[in-house]
Design brief:
Layout lengths: L1 E7 L4 H8 L5 E8 L5 H6 L5 E4 L8 H14 L4 E4 L8 H6 L4 E5 L11 H8 L3 E8 L9 E8 L6 H30 L1
């Protein structure tokens, strides 16, 4: 069975959706969190996974921070990383160790509305359609190769909250489905 880690910084709803997904061809062995007070940490205590809180403020630079994470990933024999609301750019230390093995989810139809508050960006732009993108992680911000996307209509009466709820409903289904597809395809090819 493939061994995987989830990286999260916030509430952990996408992390929870991954953990609760049935028939994933991997086991989630580790949660990596960069925020010591993040709600995802208490949620993760119910999962059969180790929690590794790694506060970047306690390291001299990004390389040292990522090296500490990489050491933990190697200890746990992690093969794949799934970002689920992890609010940090991944640097060369992890990218080089996990080429094409780090996935991210983003609440827009990339390349539109990359970066923070994609939902707010979509509402401000007055678009009629937003959505969800799952992509490989590269050195840029939400610029990696796109794996899957699904559109979500933006309604005239939408608020940040209502659009966020509808996007999250898609995320919680699409991310586990895409993870399963990618892992099965890689396994078939290898």
């Amino acid at each position: 069975m493939i061994s995987a880690a989830i990286f999260a910084s916030g509430s952990g709803s996408n992390a929870e959706a991954i953990v609760q997904a049935s028939e994933l061809p991997c086991t989630i062995q580790l949660l990596v969190c960069d925020k010591p007070e993040a709600p995802v940490i208490s949620k993760a205590k119910e999962w059969d996974a180790e929690v590794f809180v790694c506060d970047p403020k306690t390291f001299e630079d990004k390389q040292a921070y990522e090296q500490a994470i990489l050491t933990k990933l190697q200890e746990k024999h992690i093969e794949w990383i799934f970002l689920a609301g992890y609010m940090r750019l991944i640097g060369p230390t992890l990218l080089e160790a996990y080429p094409e093995r780090i996935l991210n989810i983003h609440p827009s139809l990339l390349p539109a509305f990359a970066g923070k508050d994609a939902i707010g960006q979509a509402l401000s732009a007055g678009v009629k359609v937003s959505g969800v993108t799952i992509h490989f992680v590269d050195a840029g911000m939400d610029t990696g190769n796109i794996i899957a996307q699904e559109a979500v209509p933006v309604l005239e009466e939408d608020t940040h909250h209502t659009l966020h709820q509808r996007i999250q409903a898609i995320e919680h289904r699409l991310y586990p489905e895409t993870i399963s597809y990618i892992l099965k395809e890689r396994d078939r090819k290898e």
